[in-house]
Request: fold
Amino acid sequence: MNNPLINPGLGTFVWMLVSFGILAFILIKFGWPMILKSLKSREEAIADSLNEAAKAREEMKHLVAHNEELLRQAKMERDEMLRDARMASDQIVEEARAKASAEADRIVEAARENINYEKLKAMTELKNQIANLSIEIAEKLIRAELEDKAKADALIQKELELAKLN
Reply:
């Protein structure tokens, strides 16, 4: 039971302490600033992503307002076409009404399609950003869970048991 790894001598203990001190100094001097820099850049990236989402939301509001204005203008154009058609003869009246109605429906449908397209585009972008944030959060949670050796071993054992059952 005279193993130097279990019961180190005073000289071995001093050298281990000096080696640990040098390692701690190197990590504090060079490793810690890099870790802090990485965390800072991560924080900035998240803040930028949130700002982009806010900008996208504002842009979507402007697009909706613009689309409503287009819809209002389309309705005004349709009404004007209908007034002009009433002044013409009966045959011209019927043809003008059909054309105006078809044109208005096309404009309204185009506006609706444009609104739906922009809404789907914004929702897709928002979903992608939410998915990215969810993945990042899950990654951080898993890292935090696996930092504790006992929890990591328990998780591995649990997964192995599940794998054996299947």
